[in-house]
Automatic annotation (TrEMBL):
GO terms for biological process: diaminopimelate biosynthetic process; lysine biosynthetic process via diaminopimelate. Homotetramer. Pathway: Amino-acid biosynthesis; L-lysine biosynthesis via DAP pathway; (S)-tetrahydrodipicolinate from L-aspartate: step 4/4. Signal peptide: none annotated. Keywords: Amino-acid biosynthesis, Cytoplasm, Diaminopimelate biosynthesis, Lysine biosynthesis, NAD, NADP, Oxidoreductase. This is 4-hydroxy-tetrahydrodipicolinate reductase. The keyword Ligase does not apply. Catalyzes the conversion of 4-hydroxy-tetrahydrodipicolinate (HTPA) to tetrahydrodipicolinate. The active site is at residues 136, 140. It comes from Candidatus Daviesbacteria bacterium RIFCSPHIGHO2_01_FULL_40_11. Residues 1-104 form the Dihydrodipicolinate reductase N-terminal domain. Residues 107-239 form the Dihydrodipicolinate reductase C-terminal domain. It catalyses: (S)-2,3,4,5-tetrahydrodipicolinate + NADP(+) + H2O = (2S,4S)-4-hydroxy-2,3,4,5-tetrahydrodipicolinate + NADPH + H(+); (S)-2,3,4,5-tetrahydrodipicolinate + NAD(+) + H2O = (2S,4S)-4-hydroxy-2,3,4,5-tetrahydrodipicolinate + NADH + H(+). Its EC number is 1.17.1.8.
Amino acid sequence: MKIALIGYGNMGHEIEDLINESDTHQIVSISYKDPSEKLDKDGIGKADVVIDFTSPEVVVSTIKEVAGMGKNMVVGTTGWYDFLPEVKAVVKKSKTGLIYAQNFSIGANIFFKIVGFASSLFGKFGNYDVAGLEIHHRGKKDSPSGTAKKLASVIMENFPKKKKLETDRLDRQISKDELHFASLRAGRNPGYHEVIFDSMSDEIKLSHSAHGRRGFAEGALVAAEFIKGKKGFYSFDEVFKA
């Protein structure tokens, strides 16, 4: 499969390294090796699938450009989800395919399912409360992480008394219907997420810790294989249903 990369930060390098080890994939284009560069439209035109790991500030305009070229996309950039309806409309109009995820790690996506199941069990008992914590490197540009938002959504879908997500600093007592998900930014941590179920009797912690970025790159390539030749708008959840 011929792949065009958009974005050449940590994830771009990780995907490049992984593809260079592959006998089945090749990179035909890399855009934004330098932030001042323009999109490599000639190279993208040769690709089967385009993988984007850029920034929230540019990803929506990039999606529009790539969709206008009739190319399918994997979008690993986070922090743009307020524009989901607009992007869905763009994908539909262009008759292309797009798959996105808050986290492309296979393990993290299985973790979502574990947390959902645990939330449905603990949510049946009124004596349990739930909260979350995420830690990332100091260079991460969004807070809370897309993964934290996904976990919060999964929890609230399955833990009936939690109705609202609270991610800010609290100078008050938290309401019973609020789910508090805290964020820390420091050092070089590639990603740590923890969900805590707590009662007067005991405490249960579920966590996922990324050892590096390779897992995200592997998942992005799985997503690329999934979206090749498809039309429509997909989340990475669909891969686990296929």
